[in-house]
Amino acid sequence: MAATRVSELSPGAMKWVVIDRERVLIAHVDGAFYALRDCCGHLGAPLSTGTLVGYVIECPLHYACFDVRTGKLLSGPVAADVAGYQVRVDGDTVYVKR
Ligand code: FES
Fold it and tell me: Disulfide-capable partner of 16 in 7, 48, 89, 95 (CB 3.0 to 4.6 Å)?
């Protein structure tokens, strides 16, 4: 499903979109795009409102850190990774497959 346009997301930025009634975070890092479920596995904070430094997203509530490329938990008060989704870029369109 078309999620956003390449031109709408600057390098180092992230945003959220709704796909199939679920919030999905889209991030642009180093010329590549990544998509994760926009919901921290701890208490459900929207990760898209956290901070993105390099490939690390930090949750805005209790600072759990996840790898934006995979959703893998790196540190924090939570035991679960965040679901990641397949991304494909075609021209100016970023597609996400859930
Ligand atoms: S809600 Fe994300 S670390 Fe607590």
Answer: 48
